[in-house]
Amino acid sequence: MTQRTPISIWHNPKHFLAFGFGLGASPVMPGTAGTVAGILFFLLLSQTSIWSYLIIVLVMFLFGIWLCDSTSKDLKVHDHSGIVWDEIVGYLITMIALPNSWGWMIAGFATFRIFDIFKPWPIKWLDQKVPGGLGIMLDDVLAGCYSLIVLQFIAWTFFSYN
User: Fold this and answer.
1) Nearest to 68 by CA among 20, 114, 33
2) Alpha-carbon gap, residue 105 to 111, rounded angstroms
3) pLDDT digits over 3-28, tens only?
4) How far apart are CA 103 and CA 8, in angstroms?
5) How do the domains of the chain map onto residue ranges?
6) Burial (0-12, 13-18, 19+ Cβ within 10 Å), 129
7) pTM
8) Crossing angle (nearest 10°) for helices 132-158 and 50-75
9) Which of 4, 44, 29, 5 is nearest to 116 (CA)?
10) How far apart are CA 64 and CA 67, in angstroms?
């Protein structure tokens, strides 16, 4: 369900971040549009060490719990479709330790979106049962973990790094 985009995203820095720098304001598929911001973050973070990458993603996750909770309370809508900070973090989890190439970035994008849209168990359950910012973040974190497992399996099975 597409929800009306609040005007506050253009003048409130917190809402602007939660809406993925405005990409979540897309009138169609805001989660998919927001995941594009994840690609941009990945391009920047893939230049760092794996430990720096992991720490930054953890900080973004913890910050996201507050950011998504606070923004959803401001908007008086639990998990507004335009809040896409969770998609950014989920995509970054998908891409942990994968090569920085367009093929892997597109595979990560597609795999993450599939898990995020179809929400296999327990993703859908978490999405429905866990309240607040943690609930908003957790379903995408788990979709990112599922995607990470699939892509790492493919990478190690078919593209062994010997």
Assistant:
1) 20
2) 10
3) 677 778 898 999 999 999 999 989 88
4) 36
5) 18-155
6) exposed
7) 0.93
8) 150
9) 29
10) 5
